[in-house]
Amino acid sequence: MRAFVAVEITSQEVLNSIKKLQSSLKIDAKPIEIHNMHFTLLFLGEISEDMAQKVQAQLKTIAFSSFDISFEGIGAFPKPKSPRVVWVGIDDNGAKQLVGLAKVVEGRLAPLGFRADKEFKPHATVFRIKNRVGDITGELAKYAGVKFGTQKVSEIKFKQSVLTPSGPIYSDLGVTSAK
């Protein structure tokens, strides 16, 4: 099974703001479905059922306190001149907390052989861009100062991803709640 560890975006205020952005941003790209919005703390790739049980056991040992994150800013990876992904960012304090949580997750799963393939940069993907769309710097600049709302982070989810032609289908394998 294809699996990852994530923090879901659950605030209706944030999700509504992102949906509004998706409908008003003028780019030729596929919007991420609102119910799939999340931060991937660690992508695990293809794992066995046995490994999934070991991962879940390790995740259950994580103790963390809930914290707030504020969604603000917009950008593109690798860059606005040739984007593949459009994202919404979060405030510095929330980003530090999420980075810390991602490091804890990686630390717990490292003995099982899991490592991040790149540094975790907290962002919520709102569009995936398949075709070249050209420079979207101007379009993104219109939303530079927009605040999308705040959410409390109180759960880490261990999730399965099934890829389909119409997009991924995510399901929960386990939940670790804040203490």
Oligomer: single chain
Average pLDDT score = 94
Order of SSEs, N→C?
EHEEHEEHEHEEE
Count of DSSP strands: 9
Read across the widest sheet, the strand sequence of neighbours is 2-6-5-4-7
**The biggest beta sheet, please?**
5 strands, antiparallel
Shape: globular
Distance between the termini: 29 Å
- Helix and strand composition category: alpha+beta
Number of distinct helices: 4
Low-confidence stretches: none
* Residues in helices, as a percent range: 25-40%
Strand content: 35-45%
The value of Rg in angstroms is: 16 Å
Structure characteristics:
single chain, 179 residues, alpha+beta, five-stranded antiparallel β-sheet, 26% helix, globular
Can you walk through the features of this model?
- The chain has 179 residues and is an alpha+beta fold.
- 26% of the residues lie in helices and 38% in strands.
- The chain contains 4 helices and 9 strands, in the order E-H-E-E-H-E-E-H-E-H-E-E-E.
- The strands form 2 sheets. The chain has a 5-stranded antiparallel β-sheet with strand order 2-6-5-4-7. A 4-stranded antiparallel β-sheet has the order 3-1-8-9, with helices on one face.
- The model has no long low-confidence stretch (mean pLDDT 94).
